[in-house]
Design a protein that fits this description.
131 residues; 4 helices; elongated; two-stranded parallel sheet
Length: 131
């Protein structure tokens, strides 16, 4: 029976991850340090089978924001407050080791505003599992 183990990284892992990334067409531009260098809000580990690495994992702190505006509260007031509030939120999250801020919306005017005024980008390669 195969033995699966989860372990912290050691010195040999950096070279291995670098080589794997170079030889993987889907990840050739990925930064090795994502998988190997410790940083606040980030956890890395290796998954081995019978003592040999099968894959490496990097888990980052990410915040998902849900917003509810007062109905009829005023678009200009909402926009100004949203920019001010998000500046505060982003600074606070960065201090706590978060790496990304996500918001879900189907309301096109809000989406366009967040893209233009705050630099949000539509991401289509992400998948989500609620915990």
């Amino acid at each position: 029976m195969k033995t699966i183990a989860y372990r912290s990284l050691d010195e040999s892992d950096k070279a291995r991850v670098s080589e794997w990334l170079k030889n993987d067409p889907e990840h050739q531009t990925a930064d090795c340090s994502l998988f190997t260098d410790a940083a606040p809000g980030r956890t890395q580990f290796a998954v081995d089978e019978d003592g040999a690495p099968v894959f490496y994992v990097c888990v980052e702190n990410v915040a998902r924001v849900h917003i509810q505006f007062e109905p009829g509260g005023g678009t200009l007031k909402n926009a100004k407050t949203l920019i001010t509030g998000f500046r505060w939120l982003i600074a606070n999250l960065k201090q706590r080791g978060y790496h990304e801020l996500i918001f879900d919306s189907r309301f096109q005017p809000l989406i366009r505003f967040c893209e233009k005024a705050m630099g949000f980008l539509k991401r289509e390669q992400d998948y989500s599992a609620r915990l």
